[in-house]
Amino acid sequence: MALALSMLLSLASPAWGEELPRAKWSPVMQEIFSTMAYLLPRSLDEERFSNESERAEIAKQITALANAVAQLEQSGHEGRDRGSSLVYLSQSLGRDVEQARMRFDAGLYEEARYFVVGSLHNCFACHARRPSQNRFPLAEQLTDEVGLDELDPQETAVLYVVTRRFREAIDTWQAMLRDPKIEPREVDEAGVLTDYLAVAVRGLQEIAPTRKALEGFARREGVSPYLRSHLDAWVGALADIEKHPKLLEVKLEQVRALIERADKASDAPRDRHGLVYDLAASSSLHQLIDRGAGTQEALSPRDQSEAYFLLGRIEARSMTQFWIDESAHHLEASVRAMPKGAHAARALAMFEENMISDYGAREVGDLPTDVWVRIQTLRELVHGQPAATN
Fold first, then answer.
1. Helix (H, G, I), strand (E, B), or coil: what is residue 61?
2. 226, 274, 289, 315: least CB-packed within 10 angstroms?
3. Is the pLDDT score of 256 beyond 60?
4. DSSP-based helix, strand, coil % in the chain, nearest 5
5. Rounded to 10 degrees, what is the CA torsion of 362, 118, 87, 57?
6. Three-state DSSP class for 116?
7. CB atoms < 10 A from the CB of 184, how many?
8. Cα–Cα distance for residue pair 78/72, rounded to 1 Å
9. pLDDT tens digits for range 65-76
């Protein structure tokens, strides 16, 4: 549900609005805001969400949201190419809304609420991926209606990002880093550090203030050796970027330099030491892909394939959003951008491994039919004919 707000706010920005005809997405915006105004405060209140007096209206609003999302997805297909995150995220939202609708209709209200609330993380992932200072008064109104005093600080910060209140989110996280009542271990386990870095480095590109905040947190008592090693690596990376600000330039050459630094900092596939470099790189990659889409300023197919491939690598090793993993989407987009290019075969191999791991399968032949068909299609694009399933 909250991803709908994310996609809506993206559509409201000039970059999206120029690509989708206003006549197509304006009614969708109105419908989504209408359902959001009703569902958002209720979805964060367990008793209210299952209250008998409101069940009929909640069911009606979820159905209306599902219909609006279907229109949003269709607009995305018409306005963007196969690699568009808009299309991918609208599909993800559609699945979440459908899961919520089915469970609510079956009387499984807590499970339905789980899918509604969980969509906040989709929205977070969208808004924190590239620099943005835009504010949306109507989104802030929705935040005020939720009742932030009922949420814990981490939930509050995430909701601020969902509604693009980035400064409030940063202030909330920094207060958590200083709060002696919150153990350093709890801060890390709640995902505060990763989310904070995602918004501060990738979303706002505030390098020096972020370094100082982490240095202060590292001086607190109770910071474990493993966490201190992460903090040292992140502080060092931030200091490096401060010394070499050109690393933040939106160019593929700078992205390659950042990823090279991340590779050197990380000792294992999911080692978080290179997180800061990966976040900075992903910010530039998203800007490169979105910039000039559908115009002569767009990336060439070769560069687009590389950009998506690098995003897939970054997502697989550094991103920690459990609700949505865009690595497979990026890798598939890399293959489709240039099937005979330098990155296609590697992207395909990583995509297959990603699918097998996600579904707990032993081999490609054990995957669900729709996933198996996707792999076979990509294999035909890369190799000219379907490869063996084993």
1. helix
2. 226
3. yes
4. 75, 0, 25
5. 130
6. helix
7. 20
8. 10
9. 888 878 776 765
Structure tokens at 358: 């996600």
| Contacts of residue 199, Cβ cutoff 8 Å, sequence gap at least 6 | 128, 161, 166, 169, 170, 173
How many C-beta atoms surround the C-beta of residue 73 within 10 A?
A: 21
Q: Under DSSP, is residue 360 helix (H, G, I), strand (E, B) or coil?
A: coil
Q: How far apart are CA 369 and CA 367, in angstroms?
A: 6
Tokens 């008592």 sit on residue: 221
Query: How far is 46 from 5, CA to CA, in rounded Å?
Result: 21
- The percent of residues in the chain predicted with pLDDT above 90, rounded, is 43
DSSP 149-215: GGS-HHHHHHHHHHTT-HHHHHHHHHHHHH-TTS-HHHHHHTTHHHHHHIIIIIIS--HHHHHHHHH
What pLDDT is stored for residue 362 in this prediction?
Answer: 87
Spatial separation of the C-alpha atoms in residues 197 and 211, rounded to whole Å: 10
HSE-CB of 289 using CA atoms within 13 angstroms? 28
* pTM across the whole model: 0.79
Helix and strand totals (H; E) in the chain: 21, 0
Determine contact, residues 135/165, Cβ cutoff 8 Å: yes
Is 25's pLDDT higher than 80? no
What Å distances lie between residue 154 and 40, 102, 123, 250, 363, CA to CA?
A: 17, 29, 15, 30, 39
Measured CA to CA, the distance from residue 294 to residue 243 in angstroms comes to 35
Number of neighbouring beta carbons within 10 Å of residue 237: 27
**What confidence tens digit (pLDDT) does each residue in 321-374 have?**
545 678 888 999 999 999 999 999 999 999 999 899 888 888 888 899 989 999
pLDDT band at 165 (very low <50, low <70, confident <90, very high): confident
Residue 271 has pLDDT above 90, yes or no: no
**Residue 141's pLDDT is what?**
61
Residue 279 CA to residue 267 CA, distance in Å, equals: 17
158, 136, 185, 144: which is closest to 11 by C-alpha? 136
